[in-house]
Amino acid sequence: MKIYTRAGDEGKTSLIGGRVAKDDLRVEAYGTIDELNAFVGLAAAAAADKLPELAQQLTDIQHELFDCGSDLAYANKDGVSCKMSSAAVDKLEGWIDQYTDEAPELVRFILPGGSDVSALLHVCRTVCRRAERRVVTMMAAHPSNPEVRRYLNRLSDYFFAAARAANARLGFPDVEYARSAEVFRKRKP
């Protein structure tokens, strides 16, 4: 099987149900999700030996990111059932709560970094925010499954919480932004 088809040489690509320009809002949205998925794979590889539970969660997230891209790739959604649902968001919220409880209390902004795993999760967080922005723009012109937007919004929070927990588990302190005021509320006992 040949990997190249030459079908896109004129700047068009296929969606499910039609062809569009390669810079179409839908292609930009699911293409940014694909970029995020590659960074998630890199983070999972870095976590595999050190934090295997996290690596497994990241692999699960990679599958869900493919589902997000699939839901956005329909030129015509008539009769199509979407793959993303609120259950994926609920799962992320459980993981976020767990990781938030593991990390030290957050009072000020922190610098992305610490361990290699944490640094990669922060890269995932920022690419996820960009993917979310692309999806918001796309959905203004081409309504699609709103669970994708909700999932990406929660996923960036997951990456932040997981990055902080990874640092805590691996013995790396978060580095506070030197000129940050106290911007986060203290936890209630």
UniProtKB/TrEMBL annotation:
Reaction catalysed by this enzyme: 2 cob(II)yrinate a,c diamide + reduced [electron-transfer flavoprotein] + 2 ATP = 2 adenosylcob(III)yrinate a,c-diamide + 2 triphosphate + oxidized [electron-transfer flavoprotein] + 3 H(+); 2 cob(II)alamin + reduced [electron-transfer flavoprotein] + 2 ATP = 2 adenosylcob(III)alamin + 2 triphosphate + oxidized [electron-transfer flavoprotein] + 3 H(+)
Pathway per the UniProt entry: Cofactor biosynthesis; adenosylcobalamin biosynthesis; adenosylcobalamin from cob(II)yrinate a,c-diamide: step 2/7
Keyword rRNA-binding assigned: no
InterPro entries found in the cross-reference section: CblAdoTrfase-like, CblAdoTrfase-like_sf, PduO-typ
Membrane-spanning intervals of the chain: none
Keywords from the named record: ATP-binding, Cobalamin biosynthesis, Nucleotide-binding, Transferase
Cobalamin adenosyltransferase-like domain segment(s): 3-165
Enzyme kind, highest EC tier: transferase
E.C. number: 2.5.1.17
Protein family according to the UniProt entry: Belongs to the Cob(I)alamin adenosyltransferase family.
PANTHER family: CORRINOID ADENOSYLTRANSFERASE, CORRINOID ADENOSYLTRANSFERASE MMAB
Protein name per Swiss-Prot or TrEMBL: Corrinoid adenosyltransferase
Source organism (scientific name): Paenibacillus cisolokensis
Lineage of the organism: Bacteria, Bacillati, Bacillota, Bacilli, Bacillales
